[in-house]
Structures are given as structure tokens and as C-alpha cells.
Design a protein that fits this description.
By secondary structure, this protein is of the alpha/beta class. 34% of the residues lie in helices and 21% in strands. It contains 8 helices and 10 strands. It has helices spanning 21-28, 37-47, 71-78, 99-107, 120-128, 145-162, 175-185, 211-214; strands at 2-5, 31-34, 57-60, 83-86, 112-114, 135-140, 165-169, 191-196, 205-210, 226-231. Helix 6 links the parallel strand 6 (135-140) and strand 7.
Length: 232
Amino acid sequence: MLFLIPAYLSEESPIDYFAPSIKEYILKTDYFFVENEKTARKVIKFFAPEKKQSHLKLFLLDKYSESNDLKEAQKLMKSGQDFGLLSEAGLPCIADPGNLMVKWCHENNIKVIPINGPSSIILALISSGFNGQEFTFHGYLPIDKEQKKKQILFLENQVQKSGYSQIFMETPYRNNQLLEDLIKFLNPNTKLCIAANINHPTEEFIKTLKISDWKNKKPELHKIPAVFVLGK
């Protein structure tokens, strides 16, 4: 079986924010697909501190991975070995490359078990006040300035034309620059939700304002995990 194991959104989140079943599934196996070994070990220690780190067998699964890179793990799964799939943050396979192994499991008749946990994307959306029936997640915006401007204007147009909420992210150290670009390129009346440090017990920041208001109330977002939502 493949267990889809959620990670915390903030290391400061109290353990009682999470379902006890996360720990139960982590204790069921020593074999895990991970995007980053250091982060994965911290997440496993957070949920199951009694688990011996020396027993862990971690297989790298990142955005550069291909199915052929995971043949050893796939052979073990076919022989009956259970695996866990850990995200860097939140739920696996959303803004995360884990779907590669989930797809392979379905093609090879291996059971997939999703485990309840937080998703920063969904939590940002439901906290925004925007349309939660119809929405699109775009992942990370382009780095190139002209392409980024074109994408920002496209997202604004989609909100106005369809009413769909538009969700996107940025690498935390570029958050401040993204906010500057949004203020620069978007219509002053367009509404933007910024959801930062989601699930942090004391520093969570979630607010929806018009762009004209954000211009005078810019939060400090440097190196802070954040999700951005445009909507009506």
C-alpha cells in the first residue's frame, strides 16, 4: 500500500491540530518517498518521535524524478512492501511531485490510502471570502518579469470573466516582490487575499483587501510561506 501522509504547514503547529492516524501510518512502515530528506526526517520526528531515524529508508521523489529513477522502490512495493509518501508541506500531490508514484500505483494495482491533513491552498481559499465552488490553482508564477506580468493580468481577466477564484504561490524569498508586482499591474479595485504562515499558532496572517488598500498596508512576507488568491 501507499500511504499519502500530510506534513505540517508550520513547525510551530501544536500536535493536536492533526489526526492521530498520521502517527499510526508513519509507524506502519520505514519506507518513504520524500521530496527532501532533511525535511522528511523532521516531519517524521514531529509526528512519531519514538520512531528510530536509523531505520528509515528514504527514496528521493522530486520534480526532476522519473518513474525509471524509482525502480528499486517499485520492485519493493510489488513484493508487498508498504510505503509512505511525504510532502514538504501540507497534503502530498498538491503543488508536489508525488503524483508520479500515485499514478504508478494505480497502474500496478497497489492500494493508495490518503490521510487527512492540512492543505495551505484549500485553507487559503476558504478563508478568502471568494468563490469556493469554482477555482483554479496555478502553482508558481513565472520568474521572467514580462511573463509574470502577462500571467498576473491573465488571472485578473479570468476572475472578471468567469468568477473563478485564482490561486497561486511564490517562493517565500520572492513574496515581497510578487506583492509589489500585483500592486503595480492589477486594477486598484481587484480583490486579493494573502494567507501567510497558515496554521502558525501566533503569527498566522490572512486578509482580503482591494489592491488599492494593499498599496498602503503591505505586510512583510519575506521568507514566509504564503498563498495568494484573486477573486470577487
